[in-house]
Design brief:
Layout: H1 2-5, H2 9-45, E1 52-55, H3 60-71, E2 78-85, E3 88-99, E4 104-105, E5 112-113, H4 118-131, H5 158-162, H6 177-180, H7 185-193, H8 210-222, H9 229-238, E6 246-247, H10 265-274, H11 277-286, H12 293-299, H13 317-320, E7 329-331, H14 333-344, H15 351-357, E8 376-378, E9 381-385, E10 393-399, E11 403-408, E12 413-419, H16 431-449
Antiparallel strand pairs: 1-3, 2-3, 2-12, 3-4, 5-7, 6-7, 8-9, 9-10, 10-11, 11-12
The structure holds 2-acetamido-2-deoxy-beta-D-glucopyranose (NAG) (2 copies).
């Protein structure tokens, strides 16, 4: 019996060979993927686009990287990047198409939806109310919005809403398009009546859509004039500072909005080869149970706003007009960058409040209820550790398809990136954006060493 079990020389040869063969096949496979990602894709998708706009001569290399994004095939349609350094505009570049189907070029006046980057604008409105002494972060929401104080939400604070701790990433009721439109009173009523999915403050889970109405309800109650978030932002921030930024597109401005396209499967594969962390991100999404918070939040309360739907919803002008402080901010990169440059240079809020905004209120390790990965949050922003200075943070907010707002108060730097050729990833996993951020730091370090 023993002799029979002993592997023959042939079997050893065979298994060795199969080991060699499989290693060889794997290497061929990896090499093919790399040829596909780094040679074939740039040939297929890459193109030389004339780059428009302004760049400070010292930052010329940022323009080169922006141009390379198109040449390497990372920009399907159009894009706009703006950088403020020490409160001065040093980059405002745009290129490509605002609408590829109509071959309409991106111009100085093109606007793009900010998607979730809008949440930073909403956070700023709350900060302005705090600055004016009309609101405290630790106050219960119900102090400003009486109807909200029911169903276990009596003690939910403004800070918890801004930290996505309110337990309302989805609600049991659906909010129809009709109810979401205009003043959205019925949407607000349903949010105020909802029962939280967890004890408010006991956990954090990203609220992709409802965050907008939560902030709207708080602003209406705290503002002595009772204005909506949209109107408050327009009259207290955009107009006085001359900024072309709205929450919800006005009907007569719809023609300026960029038209979105979504990534192809080829681009997904290219991006995963380029940065395998993306595979982890995709798996974190698709391996979650159908009852997971993230899937519930795409279905409720607004199933028609699911960005993963077979037809991307936000090309619909009806959705672009919604006054939703979580998704429908609309602007160009320059004006959003200018706004937050003013903020960190104390032109909008007082210095002690800006100091407070530059640190997260939630930075302990936790399982994030919606995206699982713990995100540092606070005041309506997301935070990252500062790239060089310990115990300091950068902040801002990513948006769907790689829209991005990046704020580094230490360096006095704001970077905003917008594009309508939606990307597979957001934040630093989105290579064409990451490349612009790292190049900006490289130039700034060089300047500071001279
Ligand atoms: C709110 O706080 C009060 C006072 O601490 C407490 O009595 C009440 O049970 C709390 N309500 C909820 C829903 O947590
Ligand atoms: C600055 O903002 C804080 C809120 O963080 C407020 O308490 C304070 O009164 C403000 N100071 C000035 C000078 O406006």
């Amino acid at each position: 019996m023993n002799a029979k079990r002993r592997p023959s020389a042939f079997m050893i040869m065979f298994s060795k060979n199969s080991h060699i063969t499989s290693t060889f096949c794997f290497l061929i496979f990896v090499a093919t993927l790399h040829i596909f990602a780094f040679i074939a894709m740039p040939i297929m998708y890459g193109r030389k686009e004339p780059i428009h706009g302004f760049v400070d001569p010292k930052f010329e290399s940022v323009k080169k990287q922006f141009e390379r994004n198109f040449m390497d095939g990372f920009e399907r349609d159009g894009a706009n990047v703006a950088i403020f350094y020490k409160n001065k505009p040093i980059v405002n570049l745009w290129a490509g198409n605002a609408d590829s189907e109509l071959e309409k070029p991106w111009t100085r006046h093109t606007r793009s939806l900010l998607f979730s980057t809008t949440k930073a604008l909403s956070g700023l409105c709350i900060a302005l109310l705090v600055d004016q002494g009309l609101l405290n972060y630790n106050d219960p929401v119900a102090k400003y919005w009486t109807e909200f104080g029911q169903n276990g939400k009596e003690n939910t604070t403004v800070r918890q809403v801004l930290n996505h701790e309110a337990g309302l990433p989805y609600i049991d009721e659906t909010i129809s398009l009709e109810e979401a439109k205009g003043d959205a009173h019925e949407a607000l009523r349903k949010i105020a009546a909802a029962k939280p999915a967890w004890v408010p403050g006991s956990a954090s889970g990203y609220h992709p859509i409802t965050y907008g109405w939560l902030i709207d309800g708080i602003v209406r109650g705290a503002d002595p004039k009772g204005r909506s978030l949209k109107q408050f932002f327009n009259e207290e921030i955009a107009k006085p500072h001359g900024l072309d930024i709205d929450i919800g597109t006005e009907p007569d401005q719809l023609y300026r909005n960029a038209k979105y396209t979504v990534p192809t499967n080829m681009e997904y594969i290219r991006d995963i080869v380029h940065d395998p962390r993306l595979l982890g991100m995709v798996m974190m999404l698709y391996l979650q149970h159908p009852d997971a918070v993230i899937w519930k939040a795409t279905k409720s309360p607004c199933p028609y706003l699911n960005p993963l739907a077979s037809e991307f919803p936000f090309n619909n002008p009806e959705y672009q007009q919604l006054n939703l402080g979580s998704a429908t901010g609309v602007s160009n990169a320059h004006d959003v960058a200018q706004l937050f440059s003013k903020v960190i240079n104390n032109e909008i809020l007082n210095a002690s409040l800006v100091e407070e905004l530059s640190r997260p209120s939630l930075n302990s390790w936790h399982i994030e209820k919606t995206v699982l990965y713990p995100i540092m949050k606070g005041h309506g922003f997301f935070y990252d550790p500062h790239p060089t200075k310990v115990d300091t943070f950068t902040f801002g907010h990513p948006g769907y398809g790689c829209q991005a707002l990046y704020i580094d108060r230490e360096t006095n730097l704001v970077i905003v990136y917008l594009s309508n050729g939606l990307k597979t990833a957001t934040s630093f996993l989105c290579f064409p954006y990451y490349r612009l951020v790292t190049e900006s730091y490289r130039v700034i370090n060089q300047i500071n060493q001279l």
